[in-house]
Amino acid sequence: MTDSDQNNPEIGEAANSPDFPPPPLEQQERMVEAILFAATTPVTTRDLAARMPHGCDPAEAVAKLRQRYQGRGVSLERIGDGYAFRTAADLGFLMQSETIEHRRLSRAGTETLAIIAYHQPVTRAEIEEIRGVAVSRGTLDQLIEMEWVRMGRRRMTPGRPATFVVTETFLDHFGLESARDLPGLSELRAAGLLESRAPDDPMRVPLVERHEDDDVDPDEPAEDLFEDD
Questions:
Q1: How far is CA 108 from CA 22, 69, 91, 99, 227, in A?
Q2: Which residues have a Cβ under 8 Å from the Cβ of 10 and sit 6 or more positions away?
Q3: For residue 30, what are the contacts with CB-CB under 8 A and spacing of at least 6?
Q4: What is the pLDDT of residue 102?
């Protein structure tokens, strides 16, 4: 029965009249199938009965329909008091999709990574001395989690501080055979990544101009290492 038929008083009264015989069970199954297919939420048998012609047995139609859909790509599942079509459990993996999210390192993360790459093995204190600011623990933790940085040998100095070096994953990501293949100062300066003036310390890699909000506060979550595109 179409919506226009339901709106027609004569057809509606005839279909729901006790004297009007119900359609065959096979037709009732088709009605239930159509209703459930178009529904956005599970439908109860009471709702089905309210929409189907008088004398129909939606519960029996649902039972037959569930048997018909056994072993198919979709199944008719009972959800609470209602019924709905769902993807077969063993085929759920087909509905999964993978997306690649591109995120940029923050300025603090970029500078820390660059210092490690060019000065490795380097301690945290040396990184802070070069940058001129404290290094957030979250910054190093995230670089290690990304497998771009790992801990190296401890320095044979008081306190035996740990050192940090870049990994093969880092080299592979940037298409480098070794850390020796990193671009030189002249190349970085030509690309506009470094200041044109010579650094005060020739062994110190000059970095891009720093702003007050560049660094990750130690109390902030590690996710701040990244910036959304």
A1: 74, 57, 44, 26, 11
A2: none
A3: none
A4: 67
